[in-house]
Design goal:
It is a single chain. About 45% of the residues lie in helices and about 20% in strands. With about 220 residues, it is an alpha/beta fold. The strands form 3 sheets. A 5-stranded parallel sheet has the order 2-1-3-4-5, with helices on both faces. Strands 6-7-8-9 form a 4-stranded antiparallel sheet. Strands 10-12-11 form a 3-stranded antiparallel sheet. β4, α4 and β5 form a beta-alpha-beta unit. InterPro entries: CheY-like_superfamily, OmpR/PhoB-type_DNA-bd, Sig_transdc_resp-reg_C-effctor, Sig_transdc_resp-reg_receiver, WalR-like, WH-like_DNA-bd_sf. Keywords: DNA-binding, Phosphoprotein, Transcription, Transcription regulation.
Length: about 220
């Protein structure tokens, strides 16, 4: 069940939205104390936020910008401000959609479902592109290796070598397997070039504080 957070200062609209969401089988929460809203969002960790613009204290546009500093939770603005400039500002501040009041319930629910579906698909793609082993994360999308909060950028060859090792975490990966994989991808490297690339990867790992991630098994291959 998706968890949706309502950030709306009008109590009648807040109650109406909550009832609408619950009838649509969503789990709904709402913010009622508008002090330090970003911290409340962080604590509640919703799957989607319905956000008004005209709020006490921090306005919705500024609030969306603050939320975006720490979370990528989808945000749909639900507001009475209907100018094209307001909508543009909402999208530029990180909003995923913009609905003007008075909203039409079936359309709002359809927009919510569409944003949630898109977010779930993007998260699935993101998760499939990250491999984790021994506390280190290999990101295949941006060619980086991250350990203990520090990140090293990898070349195409280095990324492919790391993929071979991470995808078989805990196993000894024969040198021949890695060379064959690089050959299949139209990148020819001989046995010595592989050793040079492994040395470069280890050097980048040392720069981010990791000394023993890649283990050499003499006569066999490498293992992490």
């Amino acid at each position: 069940m998706y968890h949706i957070l309502i950030i709306e200062d009008d109590t009648d609209i807040r109650s109406e939205l909550k009832l609408m969401l619950e009838n649509a089988l969503y789990h709904a929460d709402s913010i009622e104390n508008f002090t330090d809203v970003p911290a409340q969002v962080q604590a509640l960790s919703p799957d989607l936020i319905l956000l008004d613009i005209q709020l006490p204290g921090l306005d919705g546009l500024s609030l969306c910008r603050e939320i975006r500093k720490t979370k990528d939770t989808p945000v749909i603005f639900v507001t009475s401000r209907s100018s094209s400039m307001d909508e543009l500002n909402g999208i530029m501040m990180g909003g995923d959609d913009y609905i003007t009041k008075p909203y039409v319930t079936p359309i709002l629910l359809a927009r919510i479902a569409a944003v949630l579906k898109r977010s779930a698909r993007e998260n699935a793609v993101s998760d499939s592109c990250i491999l984790t082993c021994r506390g280190c994360r290999l990101n295949l999308l941006n060619s980086t290796l991250t350990c203990s909060g520090k990140t090293a950028e990898l070349t195409k060859n280095e990324l492919r070598i790391c993929w071979n090792l991470f995808s078989r975490c805990g196993e000894i990966v024969p040198r021949e397997d890695i060379i064959d994989d690089l050959w299949d991808n139209q990148i020819f490297i001989d046995d010595n070039t592989l050793s040079v690339n492994i040395t470069r990867i280890r050097s980048k790992l040392r720069e981010i504080g990791v000394d023993d991630l890649i283990e050499t098994k003499r006569g066999q291959g490498y293992r992490i």
